[in-house]
Amino acid sequence: MLTGLKSAFADAIGPVPDARQCGQAGADYPCRCCASGLIAGTRVATDRGWQAVQDLVPGQPVLTFDRDFQPLRTLRREYHWSPVARSARAFWPLSVPVGALGNAMPLTLFPEQNVLLESDLAEARYGDPFVLVPARLLDGLRGIFRAPPANDPTEVITLQFDRDESVFVNGGALAFCFALAEGEMMPLDALCDCGAQGAGYIVPAPDEMPDLLAALSEAWTPV
């Protein structure tokens, strides 16, 4: 069974998104600058409890995976869903059922939004059970599936801290947030890099992903 899952996930991974395709009609893959961030309505763990991401304000303490509560440096607001996003399935968000990523309520993720996952195989392989994976690779895993975007523009919030952080969303899932220094523009190649090597998290190589995803699928029991 695990061999079959590994083959299926290897086929699903496909090539890495290319920044040069961003925003172009007929683009096959989205880059991070148009397919990451947290959709308005996503609940984030803060010093005031679970709050909608669009209601957060700079300076507010947010609960992080590594460093307890950390002040939010800034948040960027954008609206997504161009005609390209609706026509190209690679741009479609992923619908995450309850419990699939530790979330206590349904969750919607952009395809290039990195999430932090716990894996026994990762611990055996790297000595650390937590790995970063872009959400697009989770299509078909634990009941997660691509859902066509809404007709209307969707507000998307990008949270930024003094350093790379993973934050708790929708009751327990872990969403990765890139750091951004004050006044700094994030380079396009960083926006479109599916990894996060500077964060200190393990980012499995593409040829290692099928094993990890298959093991995660095997280990999950639907809620």
List the helices and strands and how they pair.
Blueprint: H1 2-13, H2 32-35, E1 38-39, E2 43-46, E3 49-52, E4 61-64, E5 68-71, E6 74-80, H3 83-87, E7 94-96, E8 107-109, E9 114-118, H4 120-126, E10 130-134, E11 145-146, E12 154-160, E13 165-169, E14 173-177, H5 188-191, H6 209-219
Antiparallel strand pairs: 1-12, 2-3, 4-5, 6-12, 7-8, 7-11, 9-10, 13-14
Helix pairs in contact: 1-6
Protein name: Hint domain-containing protein
Pfam families: Hint_2
Domain Hedgehog/Intein (Hint): 38-171
Written description of the protein model:
The structure is a single chain. This protein has helices at 2-13, 32-35, 83-87, 120-126, 188-191, 209-219; strands spanning 38-39, 43-46, 49-52, 61-64, 68-71, 74-80, 94-96, 107-109, 114-118, 130-134, 145-146, 154-160, 165-169, 173-177. Mean pLDDT is 79; it is low at 1-33 and 187-198. By secondary structure, the chain is of the alpha+beta class. The protein is globular and about 40 Å long. The protein has six helices and 14 strands. Helix 1 crosses helix 6. The strands form six sheets. It has a three-stranded antiparallel beta sheet, with no helix packed on it. Strands 8-7-11 form a three-stranded antiparallel beta sheet, with no helix packed on it. The protein has a domain at 33-114 and 134-185: Endonuclease - Pi-scei, Chain A, domain 1 (Beta Complex). Helices cover 19% and strands 27% of the residues.
